[in-house]
Amino acid sequence: MATGTILALSIYFLSMLAIGLYAYRQSSSNLSEYMLGGRKLGPAVTALSAGASDMSGWLLMGVPGAMYVAGISQIWIGVGLVIGAYLNYLLLAPRFRVYTELAKDSITLPDYLENRFADPTRLLRLVSALVIVIFFTLYTSSGMVAGGKLFDEVFGLNYELGLFLTAGVVIAYTLLGGFLAVSMTDFVQGMIMFIALVMVPVVAFGALDQPTQMFTTIEQLNPKHLDLFTGTSVLGIISLLAWGLGYFGQPHIIVRFMAIRSVEDFKAARRIGMSWMIISIVGAMAIGFVGIAYVQQTQMPLKDPETIFILLSQVLFHPFVGGLLLAAILAAIMSTVSSQLLVTSSALTQDFYKTFLHKAATDQQQVLIGRVSVLAVALIAIVLALDSNSSILGLVANAWAGFGAAFGPVVLLSLYWKRMNHWGALAGITAGALTVLFWAYSPYQIDGKQLNDFLYAMIPGVFVSALLTWLVSLATSTPTEEVSHLFQQVSDKLQQN
User: Fold this and answer.
1) Per residue in 411-439, pLDDT tens?
2) Which of 120, 129, 164, 367 is 20 to 30 A from residue 456's alpha carbon, by CA?
3) pLDDT at 31
4) How many other C-beta atoms can be found within 10 angstroms of the C-beta atom of residue 235?
5) Which of 2, 67, 15 is nearest to 192 (CA)?
6) What subcellular locations does the record give (predicted)?
7) What is the Cα–Cα distance from 341 to 138, expressed in whole angstroms?
8) Of 283 and 223, the one with more pLDDT
């Protein structure tokens, strides 16, 4: 590995640790500060933190690789994600921010659900926390696997060494600074990703022998690369667009909306976040598309299409700049892992430890348990990740659908439907999660295809979750006066803003 590349990556790692140390001094006095940064995030940090925690390594490797292999027909998933993220800012974010504050200053998603419905059984908190802990522990493991493979395949380091290096830095700044450290590092990582996704396709396009002939080169190689509908069907396009439905139920994304300092800041956050997202997705797709022409013209060997970003960053840039561009992949991986670690830690601390084990725990005790939980979850994830071929990765591929179906309809309906109760929410979460698991792993087939290949599990999962939430809420008791009053309080406060 070139000295310049090592220097760039060292600077990146040290910067993340420095931010964690700064955040440690700012967010250690109480649990709200440790888990939500004291609800003091500005719009820019909120937007880029949400974006960076959302866009993992798939944005810099998966999307360019898909475009390289299949061409512009892969654009539909990007369209679905952009629409979903925009509606998330518009429909969920402002009302969710107000509701979580008025509902006894809820600082986790299970906390919000219990307080929103005044659930006397505590089952809603328990079930939702279990879903978060189980799925995010596995999700975190997959991110660490990605970090280990990056160091192994790109830098020639031992897989385990790369795994421990990636995990060590993430654990350090997450454990020290909590939500503030995660959000601040996400902001920096989001900027690195943005710069990389703009620079690489622009420079690669300029490096072509005949840039104006790019489309001709691609067409000569495979005309289907220029066909928007190649290899797709109506159900296939609907399945790709349905990825956007997942945003309403992703705990590591919507927790950012709980932490912004005011509802008025959402307009600026939405503009910043959507601009960042659209440009980043277009840039990722452009890397794969320009990469087709570049590899064809230069006849440069490319073993794995998902490494087209890595190839272009190492061939076209100075080693130091190339190192910073590779740091963008680490930034994507680490920003998501740190967010998942913190959400899982908050569920263990607030929703298990304080609720069921030590109701009188002080803020200092809860912050300590929060840090211990970060370490414990990370260690479990590392153990699971030691096998680079772990079957866990198959489950993680469906985690987005699992969270989207389990929490998405429930959270949206809880914000807008006054008649909804805790039994309906419990039924929706359980039904959504189980439907996705059945759809993704059932041996049954339709037209010779596995259910998940025929239609993305998100669609039946969201439908069943929403239906059960509605039916069970209507079939059981009406909300108490306290719950109805809280709903009205939220509406009144939003009208004032």
Assistant:
1) 999 999 999 999 999 999 999 999 998 99
2) 129
3) 58
4) 15
5) 15
6) Cell inner membrane; Cell membrane
7) 11
8) 283
pTM of the entire structure? 0.83
Give the DSSP H or E segment for 42: none
How far apart CA 238 and CA 485 sit, in angstroms, is 39
Same domain, 233 and 376: yes
Buried residues in 260-296 as b, exposed as e (16+ CB within 10 A) = bbebebbeebbebbbebbeebbbbbbbbbbbbbbbbb
> Which of 225, 223, 295 shows the shortest CA–CA distance to 75?
225
Amino acid type, 419:
R
Beta bridge partners of 446: 449
Contact 240, 77 (CB under 8 A): yes
**How far is residue 217's CA from residue 448's CA, in Å, rounded to a whole number?**
36
Q: Is 253 within the bounds of a domain?
A: yes
pLDDT digits (tens, 9 = 90+) for 100-159: 989 988 888 888 999 999 999 989 989 998 888 877 777 777 777 777 777 776 677 788
Identify whether 494 is part of a domain.
no
Tokens for 311?
Answer: 């190839």
* Number of domains, the chain: 2
